Amino acid sequence: MVQKQILTRRELLKSSAVAAGTLALTGAAVPWARAQGSDTMRVGVIGCGGRGSGAANDCVSSSRGVEIVALADTFEDRLRGLKDRYKVPNDRCFVGIDGYKELLALDDVNLVILATPPGFRPIQFAEAINRGKHVFMEKPVAVCPAGIKIVIEASEKAAEKKLAIVAGTQRRHQSHYVETMKRIHDGAIGEIVSAQCYWNQGGLWVNKRQPNQGEVEWQVRNWLYFTWLSGDHIVEQHVHNIDVVNWAFDALPENVHGLGGRQYRTGAEYGNIFDHFGVEFFYPGDVRTISMCRQIEGADVKIEERVVGTKGSAYMDSRRAVIEGENPWRYEGPNPNPYVQEHADLITSIRNGNPLNEARRVAESTLCAIMGRESAYSRQQFKRSWFMSRCTLNLLPPDGLKLSDSKPVPQFAIPGKYELPGLAQEGRKRRRG
Amino acid sequence: MKHVYLFQKKAQRHQKKEINNMTSSEKDNSTNKKVTMAASAVAVASSIGRVAHAQGSGKIKVGLLGCGGRGNGALRQCLQADPGVEVIALADLFESKVRQSRDRIQKDEKFKGRVKIDDDHLFWGFDCHEKLAKCEADLLCMATAPAFRGRQMLAAVKTGKHIFTEKPVATDVAGCREVMEASKIAKEKSLGIVAGTQRRHEFGRVELMKRIHDGQIGELVGGQCYWYGGGIWYRGYTEGLSELEWQCDNWYHFTWLSGDQICEQHIHNIDVMNWCFNGPPVKFTAVGGRAWRSYNDGQVNSAKEVCRKYNNGSEEGWEKYNGDIWDHIFAELEYANGARCLSFSGHSPGTGRGDEKIVGTKGTSNCNNRISGENPWTYEGRNVDGQQQEHIDLIKSIRNGNPLNEGQRIAESTLTAIGARIAACTGRSFDWNWLLNDSKQDLVPKQEDLKPGRGIFHPVATGRDNLV
């Protein structure tokens, strides 16, 4: 066992979480005062693993009048924890890859938490919107451009239906980030000319293949390590930091060039993802930024963002926010647990009748991370507009996927051999011309 | 994709030009002759007689160390730089290369009467630099694989030679320290050292840097530098070479010999960043790896063949013959004022770029000939070939009695590239002072251990190597 350390994002923020929970509760109690019994949030949880369970608990503790009433998971054993904790009856627990459909068919469920592996998110999200549910969904929200398109389309439908959507990019709900961004957008650091963001960490949990385990079952249980399920770690984790930089610019990169590889974590149990990426994003006006992420056991940890302007710079990590330069400032206010706050903000927005809809925004940040990955896999630079209009990459799970299906793990990407659908073809066309 | 593809083609052309300059003597021959001769005539007229080594004759006797493509190119550029230059000695690991180089340069009409290489001034073997340092040359041009540059430069300054050295000047931290020491000795003895980071000698860039240092783009707060290309040669088995000699012939593929691509090529661009900031970075953070080279079918087949030749037909352990260098490093260089700059380097098929950008609070520059922002400016003066000009500047400075000494600076830029490589190979961040003073990295075998025989192979770095 090389990978021993289990580092979840909850642990990274552990220290602030306990103290902050109560603050969030008081904050959320105000709108609740206006709400009636009919405002009860009847929550269905789709994906009851570590993150789904955490989100369910955070949701319940965020606001009054929240009940966990239905559960769905591919695996019975993953579902059991929430079932016991919230005493969810058997007939409202749905096991299997398609269990989410049955849960979404329940009329009394008005809010769903989507926390299955990200590869499933687009189809589950679209179905949730079809069924008229409010949604809290974990990041990332897709692993390929085809999935991004589904999410954006569904988010437009959600807006028409006045459904609320909040995504688990919790920095958007974290006080010191929100306050820093206000200042950046007010010009405290001048015009942005440079930025850097990082998610360099050690290793994560790994589930080795068990005897008699079907290929799909093993991959879903070990989902972090397969691009079609997790999107690779640049998408699965580093999307947080890329989202912060997008937020600071209030714009998306136009162009991307990345590299990466699989240098340390090379065993079969690590599927086909990379263990490091370095990506340059080009924002409007040729402002170039550094994005770096790594999952290598024992390597240095660095998870932060820095935005540099003509008048100063802003530094942010999970605990601190500091502006240096012409307008020095340091966040010293309260720091409520953002994992609770994001649910409080979601439920408040529903009860206020002004539903938050973060779907497009999180889809776009997810898209940037996917672009970084594909640029690194292919070692080619490309434009976002090209990626969205011409790249035909589609990693969506096939209809009727079964746990016992044979789904061989694709070869990890080798630059020069990896073909990004659409790119290679255009290159050939070009050469002929 | 049109724009991307065109851009790549353009970048590849640029790249190709540079690579050609480094490997083809023919290209070097045709460079900027007019400029050269005019400038050198002035230099000769104004400074004959002041150079101790050149004495009354005004001749500068030159020896070449490293008779490959770049060495032969540098030698011609040195000859073109000043009519008083004469070639008197050649040295290389291989006898065949020394003899071949002499044959070629003797036949070159352009240098008629200036090539005076006696048989006893042809040196070869792992200790050829020691023999060369003992001959009566005034100036040595050094262009072997960079691993040995420290000891070569120390030997040269101890016997009072001026030095032109190709970049990089080391492959490990210990080697950089040797060059710094050689640079100090050179200073004490008033010896010149110029390094083959030719951008420092291009007139446009020199003018540009004056403006950047004068604050025309404000405080420097960011920057990017790039060198990535399609790949490099791999030299397969050659009859008659011992394994270590084969490895030295195929030096690029071994980190202890080349320093890896970030050190061997990308140092040019890293040096420009250091130039902008007037010094090396204070902190390194990097990722990188070998994602493609191990799967390059042509190279894999060659490596297997080499393996069979040295192992009685067995292919077991062929991987080590495929080299240990990586194919990409993505590094953040943090400079003293807190600016974090990107260094982006690597090889993979169908890619190419080699340039820089510097970002200030009042504007940006392409680090070549242009400033955009509050104080826009474009260089409109004369352009010179930096690879020629660096020799002109060195010889001029020797004749003037104020020899240029770029030893410390090129050692710092080499160490910058090595620092970024170490950060990527270890997954650790560290600062400049630790690297310079405390790192114990020493990859190159001692001189007495270098003999024709078994190769010296290291495993491919994991991204989690121990930081030493």
Question: Could you describe the 3D structure shown?
Answer:
The complex is a heterodimer of chains A (433) and B (468). Chain A has 433 residues and is α/β, with parallel strands linked by helices. Chain A has a domain at 175-334: Dihydrodipicolinate Reductase, domain 2, CATH 3.30.360.10. Chain A is built from 16 helices and 15 strands. Chain A is globular. Mean pLDDT of chain A is 91; it is low at 1-37 and 427-433. Chain B is an alpha/beta fold and 468 residues long. Chain B folds into 2 domains: 2-199 and 388-405, NAD(P)-binding Rossmann-like Domain (Rossmann fold, 3-Layer(aba) Sandwich), CATH 3.40.50.720; 202-381 and 413-449, Dihydrodipicolinate Reductase, domain 2 (2-Layer Sandwich). A 9-stranded mixed sheet of chain B has the order 14-13-12-11-7-10-9-8-15. The interface between A and B is large, with 51 and 49 residues.
- The CATH architecture of the largest domain in chain B can be named as 2-Layer Sandwich
The total count of strands of chain B amounts to 15
Order of the strands making up the biggest sheet of chain B: 14-13-12-11-7-10-9-8-15
| CA-CA gap between termini of chain B | 44 Å
Percent strand of chain B: 15-25%
- Structural class of chain A, please? alpha/beta
Specify the overall morphology of chain A.
Answer: globular
Query: Strands of the largest sheet of chain A, in order across it?
Result: 14-13-12-11-7-10-9-8-15
Radius of gyration based on Cα positions of chain A = 21 Å
Class derived from helix and strand content of chain B: alpha/beta
Report the mean per-residue pLDDT of chain B as an integer: 90
Largest interface: A-B, 51 and 49 residues
Q: Tell me the number of helical segments of chain A per DSSP (H or I, 4 or more residues long).
A: 16
